[in-house]
Recover the amino acids of this structure.
């Protein structure tokens, strides 16, 4: 059985590659979710084939096809360019598909910008929601994967109006920007956020999943976050008025630069050789604000690299990153300059 399955899979892939090989200017690129390029299909989640324009349809638009590694179609679209990366300029209709072969979404582009509306579907084929695109928006939508139109946690307006949203059985929950929103994870396994819209703005109580170990409840008024509380499975709770903040040095970035300048010691071995440059150091900011796992990301000379590690390891406390009021470990990197000795 396994042998037969592998034979079918290889046959599907061979057909796609054979189709691509018939055109001398065809390109194939492999990707790992959520869109990182990789070198081979062995480490890819999907791949993209760009074919020359179909002159019977439009002589200026390249044909773009994406496939899951099992050979099933993932997306099809047309583009004004053929550079086969995330800077592609889509033009015309773009349709994406679930792994089960059913349509996932459809949208239309004009010179790389969304026009009209985006339509999403449930994996069972039923309509999920229709988002009317804000025609005055200058934002470009070149990839359009996922459900960020619904699952963003910011207090800002959507990039358009939720014209209609339904549950998986077909019941209408939201109409013309008013009603109840259900936002799912990418696999439609669970609701990760829900709440009411009034005139296309978040209003009243919204609740959802903050992490694997915590849920949140927050209050909105006219899209402005008024208050929020997250509850962990361990029984702790955290208040917040901002969904997420990044880690920052306690006295600000300028003070951190001054700390480095004040305490930096130029190694004699580098001075003698007149070695200068910038060492990039990476580290973690822990939930208690301490610095850990300090290491050189880009070095220039051992003694300079060691000094950069030493000075960053001496760092005073930082203010940790917070998400839904809960502190979490985050990665950071800074340059350490060695020019004046």
């Amino acid at each position: 059985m396994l042998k037969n399955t592998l034979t079918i899979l290889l046959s599907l892939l061979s057909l796609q590659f054979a189709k691509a090989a018939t055109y001398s200017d065809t390109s194939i690129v492999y990707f790992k979710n959520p869109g990182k390029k990789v070198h081979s299909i062995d480490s890819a989640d999907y791949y993209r084939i760009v074919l020359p324009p179909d002159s019977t349809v439009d002589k200026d638009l390249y044909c773009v096809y994406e496939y899951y590694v099992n050979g099933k179609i993932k997306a099809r679209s047309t583009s004004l360019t053929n550079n086969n990366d995330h800077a592609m300029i889509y033009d015309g209709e773009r349709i994406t598909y679930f792994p089960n072969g059913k349509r996932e979404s459809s949208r239309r582009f004009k010179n790389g910008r969304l026009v009209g509306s985006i339509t999403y579907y449930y994996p069972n084929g039923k309509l999920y929601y229709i988002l009317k695109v804000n025609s005055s928006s200058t934002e470009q939508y070149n990839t359009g994967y996922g459900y960020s139109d619904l699952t963003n946690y910011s207090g800002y307006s959507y990039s358009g109006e939720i014209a209609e949203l339904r549950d998986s059985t077909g019941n209408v929950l939201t109409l013309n920007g008013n009603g109840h929103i259900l936002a799912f994870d990418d696999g439609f396994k669970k609701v990760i956020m829900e709440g009411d819209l009034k005139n296309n703005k978040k209003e009243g109580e919204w609740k959802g999943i903050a992490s694997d170990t915590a849920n949140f409840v927050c209050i909105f008024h006219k899209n402005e976050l008024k208050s929020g509380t997250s509850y962990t499975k361990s029984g702790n709770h955290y208040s917040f008025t901002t969904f997420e903040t990044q880690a920052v040095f306690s006295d600000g970035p300028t003070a951190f630069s001054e700390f480095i300048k004040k305490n930096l010691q130029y190694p004699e071995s580098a001075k003698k050789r007149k070695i200068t440059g910038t060492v990039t150091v990476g580290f973690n900011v822990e939930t208690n604000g301490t610095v850990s796992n300090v290491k050189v990301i880009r070095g220039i000379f051992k003694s300079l690299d060691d000094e950069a590690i030493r000075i960053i390891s001496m760092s005073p406390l930082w203010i940790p990153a917070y998400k839904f009021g809960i502190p979490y470990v985050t990665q950071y990197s800074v340059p350490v300059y060695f020019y004046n000795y």
Q: What stands out?
A: Residues 1-15, 137-147, 153-158 have pLDDT under 50 and may be disordered. The longest strand covers residues 201-211. The chain has three domains: 1-85, 90-202, 248-338. Residues 1 and 7 are 10 Å apart (CA to CA).
